What we know:
Layout: E1 17-21, E2 28-29, E3 32-33, H1 37-51, E4 55-59, H2 79-86, E5 91-93, H3 99-107, E6 113-116, H4 123-127, H5 130-137, E7 142-145, E8 167-169, H6 171-185, E9 191-195, H7 204-210, E10 216-219, H8 223-230, H9 245-258, E11 261-263, E12 267-271, E13 282-285, E14 294-298, H10 300-310, E15 315-319, H11 332-346, E16 351-355, H12 357-365, E17 374-376, H13 380-386, H14 392-395
Helix pairs in contact: 1-2, 8-9, 10-11
Amino acid sequence: xxxxxxxxxxxxxxxxxxxxxxxxxxxxxxxxxxxxxxxxxxxxxxxxxxxxxxxxxxxxxxxxxxxxxxxxxxxxxxxxxxxxxxxxxxxxxxxxxxxxxxxxxxxxxxxxxxxxxxxxxxxxxxxxxxxxxxxxxxxxxxxxxxxxxxxxxxxxxxxxxxxxxxxxxxxxxxxxxxxxxxxxxxxxxxxxxxxxxxxxxxxxxxxxxxxxxxxxxxxxxxxxxxxxxxxxxxxxxxxxxxxxxxxxxxxxxxxxxxxxxxxxxxxxxxxxxxxxxxxxxxxxxxxxxxxxxxxxxxxxxxxxxxxxxxxxxxxxxxxxxxxxxxxxxxxxxxxxxxxxxxxxxxxxxxxxxxxxxxxxxxxxxxxxxxxxxxxxxxxxxxxxxxxxxxxxxxxxxxx
Length: 399
């Protein structure tokens, strides 16, 4: 990873206007924010710039309004959550460029914070329209991007502004980039990757890239069934993409050629029905799955074997659960493996980086989210990074 400018490289910002791109795409229910994690992630950067006397203008998107103004996707709806986390008053500005923003800047004092309207109300945002970029930039002195989760998009507020104003990574973006560099950019070997989830089709590019980068690839979740089927295992009624067994074989061949060991479950937890604690629940060898059974989790001895492999590794990247973790008892493998990884991280022998919505939920469920080296809340950006793709919002910050 190339070098990028950080807040430490900023000179005096007293009285300067900082356009700060953050992620405020918050989950809502009945008009109230249900999770303020993303606000808390942005808070250190906002507070640091404010303390240094900058006038901080927050740029963010909310939902997918597709270039139309809609009252139910106005960022004014999250203003209260932002003020609560920052413990201060924040001015709301119903525009992102032009005279109204200019007037707001005139009213703001040094260290004050304003929240601009949803950038996606303007069609030029997602098109990265140079005219919109110029109009937004006209009111700012400095651009700071603290939204890694939107860095895979080349939009006006995530990429365009970095080319017309001095551009820096915020603290959250910096932490993310440094963690990812440790995990796959320049990791301490041996490296393990755990990839789970329902379908191979959604993570094909990730798997193809990882077999060339890691020493151990652990495949769990529904996607493991497609790999088992490719190896001639009868997976019964399990979720399986039989049309992708040829692709699974190609990935396994590529792994062999790269010296990457693929770990598939040899012991599985099966049931005739997908329900919590079903009566037909049993643990069996993978070759003894009945025609009317479905694989819903990895068995305990197979998890232990993966744990033993992790003990030989120095770096771990994790994306996706091992089984149908939302339903008890099919959370057992994910919880057990997460606890092993957390224990190795705590004792200092493993750098562990995890990302993706399901993964974060699973690690919180296992009670070990705080014990991993780094947890990324980014979904699409984290996956594209695991695919080895260049992220436009990151590229634009490089020196």
